[in-house]
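Input sequence (289 aa), recorded before submission:
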Amino acid sequence: MNIQWYPGHMVKSKREIAESLKLIDIVIEILDARIPESSKNPEIDNIIGNKPKIVILNKCDLAEDTVTYEWIKYFKSKGYNSIDVDSSTGKNIQKVYNIVKETIKDKIERQMERGIIGRPIRALILGIPNVGKSTFINKLTSKSSAKTGDKPGVTRSRQWIKVNSSFELLDTPGILWPKFDDKKTALHLAFTRAIKDEVLDIEELSFEFIKEISQIKPNVITERYNIELSDNPIETIERIGKKRGCVVSGGNIDIIRTSNIILEDYRNGKMGKISLERPRKVDCNENER
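Predicted structure, token format:
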């Protein structure tokens, strides 16, 4: 399955991000807690250079708590303050500003020594499409400052958003990278709708999803759909379709409709908390050696 999606506006956004660095004090990188590795744009760190950064693990309500905690420890071992956030409910949102201040406290102290007092902290919000940046901003500001949607590509231009007199955000469009070299990364982005469904083969995507979930959390499928899991993902999909009434003339199963049900159930958390990725132990322990 060849998955690629890199709209033209993403090229412009990448250039604008680089140009915006001189205007901001810190970068807030938002990742999907279910797929922190796949949802991290590998080009971001090169673009921002030495700018201070914190990592937000958003949508933590959809990820396994213990695995998310592993990721927080992982990013801290890499030198980044990190926190799990649920932008929909506001979990830990109010802690973000304090983490930002803590991360750039040396810069704030230098400004005070130079007599610069009361200047608002300016943060650049970065993240891939559909990672929840706009929902995060709206919850942080307690108002609908940024457009939101359940499809990638809603934010198309930069915009300054005032949180309060001490904190300002620069929102940017979600950007992917031109080519996914790793198939699993591409699939995980597609599973979580960071890539538009319209450019994907939904049947094949649900096949790949069932294949992966059957390996890492097989009970999820049997408990959600009350079926017996098959070694063949297609048979599993057909059993789900039959259970959900996706039957067409001749007794055949509507695979497209069934595939959409499966993917939406995962994306909306109806299968429970599922983390598709966890940090490698070698990475977690490397700073302890």
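Checked by second reader. The longest helix spans residues 202-216.
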